[in-house]
Amino acid sequence: MAEIENKAAQEEEKMPNLLFNLEKPFMFEGEEVKSIDLNGLYNFSIQDMYTLNQEMYRLGFRGSNLESTLEYCCMAAALMNKKPYEWLYGMGVRDAIRFKNTVNTFFYAKV
Fold first, then answer.
1. Does the N terminus or the C terminus of the chain have fewer Cβ atoms within 10 A?
2. 22 with 28: CB under 8 angstroms?
3. What is the C-alpha separation between 100 and 74, in angstroms, rounded?
4. Helix, strand, coil content of the chain in percent (nearest 5)
5. What is the dihedral of CA 95, 101, 102, 103, to 10 degrees?
6. pLDDT digits (tens, 9 = 90+) for 64-90
7. Distance, CA of 12 to CA of 45 (rounded, Å)
8. What is the DSSP letter of 21?
């Protein structure tokens, strides 16, 4: 049992830090947002995805691969950081595209 726990701890240490640094910080509710912590993706569950899918449907989004949309990526970051969905609305376009690609890379590629 200790061997399994030790291996899990070693694997956790190998995971890269998923802190997304913004090229252009923005303000949200009087707070400057300079980076977005995406480390919660490592603990994201199917239940979290289901919750986000249901919210996307409620907001009128339809289609396959919702997780690849900018809206889904923003909602996931908000959920992980315990912020409202509107939290990232002030993000610049360049950062938004890079952000979406970072989240999608996590979902679809081995990081």
1. N
2. no
3. 8
4. 60, 15, 25
5. 110
6. 889 999 999 999 999 999 999 899 999
7. 17
8. E
